[in-house]
Amino acid sequence: MVHILGVLLRDNSFVKIALTRFYGIGYPTAERICARFQIHDRCKIKSLTPSQITSLASFLASPSTTPLMPILPLASPDYEPPKSTPPMPQMLKRDEVSERRKRDPLVGLKIETELRRQIRENIAHHRMIGSYVGRRHAMGMPVRGQNTRNNAQNARKFNKIERRG
Amino acid sequence: GPYFVAFPNLREALQNNLPIQTQARACTILPSFVGIRFMVHNGKSYLPVTVTQDMVGHKLGEFAPTRKRFTYK
To answer: Which among B27, B28, B68 has a CA at the least distance from the CA of B45?
Structure first.
């Protein structure tokens, strides 16, 4: 049982499935994160080294400010990792970093509290300007033009000014 | 680019604070519209909408509801 950023991850589950337990990470983002940290897809939480866990935790704490690593070549099948930890690969130069950051899909990643705050701000913005979207959230009705004669149960559950989940 | 309608009396409306009546609900609100009072059509009557800075990317029709609220007697 590993704690990352307040979320408990089960030892026996695959890393890319366990990462989806965070609010704001689904299957595609979890796969991207595993690829970024070079964790293979059948790797379980119990086989992660402490350094990997800390690097994952620091990445998830602020995805936009994590330093970018250079893209290393894949190891051959008969590669044996050295017993001692290898030295840190050289950091990227300034222009390369900005170029990579523009195309990087994980830079704008928001998780947990930040994401919830952003969602609440968006709803509050709509309410403040008095638009149709804000009105529907206030009434607890579906916002995107769904039918309300039947079947509006999820909207009634979730669509509030202080929207949860 | 965004869809918008060129209003001929935009400048006078800004200076004299006159409302502009429109049926163009699909018109995007531009930064030059800020501070103007529009009377947006909702099918039956014209509803007053005062444009603020936050409303800039939205359309005029979002601020004029078209249906009466459902009440069961």
So the answer is: B68
Q: Domain count of chain A?
A: 2
Containing B71, the helix (H) or strand (E) segment is none
**Percentage of chain A with pLDDT > 90?**
14
Amino acid type, A62: S
Q: Which CATH architecture has domain B9-63?
A: 2-Layer Sandwich (3.30)
Q: Quote ipTM for the complex.
A: 0.86
Chain B residues close to A134, C-beta within 8 Å: none
Q: How confident is the model at residue B2 (pLDDT cuts 50, 70, 90)?
A: confident
Assign B46 a pLDDT band (cuts: 50, 70, 90): very high
CATH code: domain of residue A12:
1.10.8.50
Q: Find the DSSP H helices in chain A.
A: 15-18, 27-36, 50-61, 94-103, 112-129, 132-139, 153-158
The predicted model scores a pTM of: 0.78
- Mark out chain A residues that contact chain B at CB-CB < 8 A: 125, 128-133, 135
